Amino acid sequence: RRCRSSEPGLAEALASTTRLRATEDLAEAVQDAELIFVLVPTPNCGGRNYYDHSILSNVLFRLNSLQLKGKHIVISATVMPGYVHGTGSFLLKDCPDTTLSYNPAFVAQGNIMEGYQTGGWFGLVIVGSSSPAARGLLKEVYERVAPKDRAPNICLMSPESAEIAKLASNCFRTTKISFCNMVADLADATPGADKHEICSALAQDKSIGPTCMRPG
User: Fold this and answer.
1) Which pTM value belongs to this model?
2) 73, 74, 136, 146: least buried by Cβ within 10 Å?
3) In this protein, which residues make up the domain named UDP-glucose/GDP-mannose dehydrogenase N-terminal (predicted)?
4) CA distance 143 to 146
5) Consecutive sets of 10 residues in the chain, 216 residues long: mean pLDDT of each?
6) Closest Cα partner for 174 from 123, 212, 119?
């Protein structure tokens, strides 16, 4: 097993595992799986729906054609609120005793391996599921891979709450970045003011915090 990715820790993890196989056959990939994670692009396309679900919906359609039984399917891509219980569940209508949950990824390139173990820069794992069994399995997965000294906060909730929580997290961080840059612009326009001093002070305010509080 070789990896051409520069993602830290990935090549070492692949080299050490004895239980990982790669396949282009979807049926082969899921036949022995209890948990099936779906990570595909849902690009921001603007407009009424905002996120393009077409690739994700196609994957669920293909899974449905396999008439899976007793599986736990987990969406990790960003979706609009209502997708899991709406379009997603409808697309899996021929899969008896199969659950669909939402576990959005909070990771960034260059920190993916560590991010999945610790909840990323934000130390957060969101599990949105109506199935107690799926909730339990996902919670167990993250508890097993998390370092004891950096275990993430695992938040269990409904799929709808998880969908909104993911979008709210994205929007809040974007708001902090925009606010920080606005303060930086004001400082740049004020003789004697230093944007780095100001933002550093704001970052030490416990009600604000340091994440996403660097100008630029």
Assistant:
1) 0.89
2) 136
3) 4-135
4) 5
5) 78 86 94 96 80 96 98 97 98 98 89 85 92 97 90 95 96 95 98 98 96 90
6) 212
